[in-house]
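Session log. Operator J.P. requested a structure for one protein chain; no other inputs attached. Running the standard single-chain path with token output.
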Amino acid sequence: MKDLNVEVFADGADIEQMKSAYNNKEVDGFTTNPSLMAKAGIKDYKQFAEDAVKAIPDASISFEVFADDMETMRKEAEILMNYGQNVFVKIPVVNTKGESLIPLIKELSAENVQLNVTAVYTIEQVKEIVDAVKEGVPTYVSVFAGRIADTGVDPMPLMKEAVEVCHSKEGVKLLWASCRELYNVIQADEIGCDIITCPGDVVKKLPNIGRDINELSVDTVKGFAKDIKTSGLAIL
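Structure written below.
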């Protein structure tokens, strides 16, 4: 891990897991979203945000707006940004109607709001975001590389081009979203991606980076043996 330049963020909304990852220095930052908050059973968004920033005062945390119209999103962004200096406000690049939210992104960035622009899938969207944000204002452009791959399309050409576009303006970082496996961390690092968000099951595998694969055959068979014993199954 010490040889990697890419920052690893944990993707989730379980406050206890977030605290553990922060205290054990397993990751560099955190991202949340409405789906993850629902899965974690969050009932009070404001209390969750307050608790998270109190427990994690100096690592990046992204909180997403819930509204679908720009006026309400702006009001929500003003609330979220005030929870701490380490907070990034997540704004989707479009709403549910497919309407571009670039005007809101431009407006908030001009006011020095740290943004994490999410649900990005095309290089055209990346270019629009980079053009819209204010030079020097910390901004993440979250490209959902994993979901692109889920359609059978190789996301690497897009991600490589997105690195160049994002790095053309000071303060903008490219974030590899929807990580599917540990190898994605290596891929993101190799192309110069700034950040990758990983779900909990991938974060747990981070210590495996650099491990000698010659050891894996024995470990795999040991795993089989343990499961055989637990199952109580037999052939003879």
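Operator note: The mean pLDDT is 96.
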